[in-house]
Amino acid sequence: MIVYSHSEEETKELGRSLAQRFQGEMICLFGEMGCGKTEFVKGFLSGLGYRGDVTSPTFALCHRYEADKTVYHYDLYRLSGYDDLYSIGFFDGEPGSVSLVEWSENAEEYLPEGALRIYFEYGDGIEDRIIRIQEADET
Question: Can you tell me the distance from the alpha carbon of 21 to that of 51, in angstroms, rounded to the nearest whole number?
């Protein structure tokens, strides 16, 4: 499925909408810096009832949020390899939680097969984004 977003608010709304129906454990977010990954996460958490601040975990590497579900928000921009992922608890998923993983391209070989993959690209306008959602069974 392809979604065209024309603003940060539309990208957040996509996240809110997906949060209300997502049943999986991991959403892998791909795309260049500034493409809307963190805005999507803000919307997703809002859709789960979270009302606090949401920031990119670029330096912390992982933020944990308590909403209708526990959400782990990872940023793998500076990471590479199994040891880095292990050291931040990436493989220690909590039953019933959801992991949102920015910069998933840096850990492609360690991502679970059943994870939802979302690809963010720049569109023609300054705020335009092309967002491709790839279900686990799509090739």
Answer: 19
Q: Report the run of H or E that residue 45 belongs to, with start and end.
A: helix 37-47
Query: What is the distance, to the nearest Å, from the Cα of residue 18 to the centroid of all Cα atoms in its chain?
Result: 11
- Could you tell me the two tokens for 22? 């997502």
Residues ≥6 apart with Cβ < 8 Å to 107: 76, 79, 80, 85, 90, 101
Q: What is the pLDDT of residues 74-133, one digit of tens each?
A: 999 988 789 999 998 899 878 899 999 999 999 999 999 889 999 999 999 999 999 999
DSSP assigned state of 94 = P
Instruction: Give me the domains of the chain, ranges plus CATH numbers.
Output: 2-134 (3.40.50.300)
**d(C-alpha 19, C-alpha 92), whole Å:** 22
End-to-end CA distance of the chain: 12
| CA–CA distance, 33 with 46 (Å, rounded to integer) | 22
